[in-house]
Amino acid sequence: MTPRINEFLATAGLPTPCLVVDLDVIERNYRRLHQYLPQARIYYAVKANPARQILDRLQALGSCFDAASLTEVQACLATGAAADRISYGNTIKKQTDIAEAYDLGVRLFAFDSAPELQKIATVAPGASVYCRIALEGTGAHWPLSRKFGCSLEMARDLLLNAAGLGLDPHGLSFHVGSQQCDVSQWDLAIAKSAMVFSDLADRGVELKLLNLGGGYPTRYRDDVPSLDRIAATIETALTKHFGNRLPELLIEPGRAIAADAGVLRSEVVLVARRDYADDKRWVYLDVGKFGGLAETQNEAIQYQLRTARDATSERGPVMVAGPTCDGADILYEDTAYEMPLDLQAGDTVDVLAAGAYTTTYSSVGFNGFAPLKAYYI
Ligand SMILES: *Cc1c(COP(=O)(O)O)cnc(C)c1O
Question: H-helix or E-strand containing 171?
Answer without folding.
Answer: strand 168-173
